[in-house]
Design brief:
The chain has 387 residues and is an alpha/beta fold. It is built from 13 helices and 13 strands.
Length: 387
């Protein structure tokens, strides 16, 4: 493997880290890019005629780069603070009718579920669920089961389907493009909302993002960018049908006029002032990941390390991996018999080994990335074996 990206991560110098699905460490040159942007803003402005070309070029440059990553035109992107706001802002702007059904998988993040529950309460909608959490087999069998269960769950009033791309708890990859194709055949053409918190930076996303109506990402997890900046890819039909919900000057086609109307592109879901240095930092992190190979090449390296870790864990007594076959991406979830997940996390943390505990289902989660090396996995397995 190339060592450039790992060498950029000072957080890995004093710990063994498997929490990329929670927050990725920030590369040194990304931090430097942020500091340089802050300096440039102060030299030019911070609020002068000279500063705006720098602000606009920084934002536009990241919008173009993310458009390439997500396989959509830049005008279909909206910058947000995080995944949840990327899901909720366009979702709440859609035209709902009482009795419409929101169909959620049983593996969605509590933040998105809570937003759907409140939307349902306010708009007199119904929430239904379909199961994917118990799918622990190989990708082909998983894809077939997801599509069959979706088929069984769809009804005449289904208006929205919510399904994550890479499940944050079990580590399965969902067939988003195939799901979108099926929804296009439904008389209601339900909207497809995809929580892509675990996707951008870890697996190829262009096909899924292009097929979804709402594909919400963050920069601070697998992209190893700064926290506080995310992006959502929106379909043309959503942009035609959804109205802004949280409104500010950036939502307006002319920022100085409240009567100018809203942007017709993704910017209608942007609100107000953002921290421009975050854009410079995320742009640099994405550039560093691009140097590690194509999305497919990066996934091959990530899943190779995940498979190696999964096989080693599966061989340990009193340990059960979540999946019956090697993980398709970088999330490796498992349980330890006789130990509470939170206790395991604390014990490993005392050894500078960092994984995460999850509540639904109760398990432990370790994430491998392009910067994960065999020694990292060996150290984790040894600590679990010798407990």
């Amino acid at each position: 493997m190339t060592s450039g990206f790992r060498d950029q991560l000072p957080a890995l110098a004093n710990k063994t880290y498997f929490n990329y699905g929670g927050q990725g460490p920030l590369p040194t040159t990304s931090l430097e890019a942020m500091v340089a942007a802050w300096g440039q803003l102060q030299e030019l402005g911070p609020f002068t005629g000279d500063v705006w070309p720098f602000v606009e070029s920084t934002v536009a440059g990241l919008r173009r780069r993310l458009g390439r990553w997500l396989g959509v035109p830049p005008q279909r992107l909206a910058f947000t603070e995080n995944v949840t706001s990327g899901c909720v802002l366009p979702l709440w702007g859609l035209p709902w009718q009482p009795g419409d059904v929101l169909l959620l998988s049983d593996c969605e993040h509590p933040g998105v579920v809570a937003a759907c529950q409140e939307l349902a309460r306010r708009q007199q909608l119904t929430i239904e669920r379909f199961k994917v959490a118990d799918l622990r087999q190989d990708p082909a069998a998983t894809d077939a089961a997801v599509l069959q269960r979706l088929e069984n769950a769809l009804g005449p009033r289904t208006r929205l389907v919510v399904l994550s791309h890479l499940l944050w708890n079990t580590g399965q990859v969902m067939p988003i493009a195939a799901v979108a194709s099926r929804l296009d055949q439904h008389p209601q053409r339900p909207w497809l909302l995809v929580d892509a918190a675990q996707s951008l930076g870890s697996i190829p996303v262009a096909e899924a993002a292009h097929a979804s109506d709402i594909y919400a990402c963050t920069g601070h997890k697998w992209c190893c960018g700064p926290e506080g900046l995310g992006v959502v890819a929106l379909s043309e039909r959503l942009l035609a049908e959804a109205q802004p919900t949280l409104i500010g000057w950036r939502s307006l086609s002319h920022e100085g006029s409240a009567t100018s109307g809203f942007h017709t592109d993704g910017r209608r879901f942007e609100v107000a002032t953002s921290c421009i240095p975050l854009f410079a930092g995320l742009d640099r992190s994405l550039e560093l990941l691009e140097a590690e190979g194509s999305p497919e090449q990066r996934l091959q390296r990530i899943s190779l390390q995940a498979r190696r870790l999964w096989e080693s864990l599966a061989a340990l007594p009193n340990l059960k991996t979540a999946l019956q076959t090697p993980p398709p991406a970088g999330i490796v979830s498992f349980t330890l018999e006789g130990e509470q997940p939170g206790d395991v996390v604390r014990r490993l943390g005392e050894q500078s080994l960092w994984i995460r505990s999850l509540e639904e289902p109760a398990c432990l989660r370790a994430c491998t990335h392009v910067c994960t090396v065999e020694q990292d996995s060996d150290r984790l397995v040894a600590a679990l074996r010798d407990r």
